[in-house]
Amino acid sequence: MRWQSFFLPKRGHSADEFEDAFAGDPVAGRFAIADGAAESSFAALWARLLVEAFVTPGRELSVNGSWLAPLQQRWAADVDGLTIPWYGEAKRSDGAFATFLGLVVTCADQYAGGTCAGGTWRGAAVGDSCLFHVSEDGIQVAFPVCRAADFGNRPALLGSRSDARTCAVRAKEAWGTWQSGDRLLLMTDALAQWFLAEAERGQQPWFAIEELQRFPNRPDALRSWLEDLRDRGSLRNDDVTLLVIDL
Fold this sequence. Notes:
Shape: globular
Oligomer: single chain
Number of domains: 1
Structural class: alpha+beta
Order of helices and strands: EEEHHHEEEEEHEEHHHE
Radius of gyration: 18 Å
Low-confidence stretches: none
Helix content: 25-40%
CATH superfamily: PPM-type phosphatase domain
Mean pLDDT: 90
Number of strands: 11
CATH topology: Phosphatase 2c, domain 1
Largest sheet: 6 strands, antiparallel
Number of helices: 7
Distance between the termini: 5 Å
CATH class: Alpha Beta
């Protein structure tokens, strides 16, 4: 499979302030995105720990307490000894928070010679980072949010100091089958909301993403496209992450 990543900080913020994270291992068929909550402390680090751990080969799919607890310990080890201004102490004590989406893609059918012709995918999500399964007939699956109106200001979150078992209860899971030529799109919330809103208006937003793929080494093309959407009020000003997996 072939995959590409696209990302851009919110308008008025630098790359150092970007709090989304993503990771992918096409050999293992594992991909993940996370959206660190801006109001929490060291959210970018927490998001990065989540995605990097998930794509490690051999990890189970489920977002459970035994998976989260070691990541929480690593986060605490990295931040608890840092000297920070007094007004940041309360936020650090509360911990970091992030939405999360993990995806595992497997091959079930093969053409002669070993080329994969189809298979299955499984996703696990906490919050409103989204997966879209797109075929030539359009959107086959939207997970875990299905309507643009369902995005809000208080999505479910994974916390770096929250009870790991309680966090795991918030996870949702989905699965599906894919065929050669299908595409899986992973998006953080702002872009996912735009994508669903466009589809609900009868548009075909996956073609805009297909056009974007023609410029994989042109960050200016991504910036120009997203800033135009922001200028028109079609896209909320937030960090944006997009993973495109062509099957």
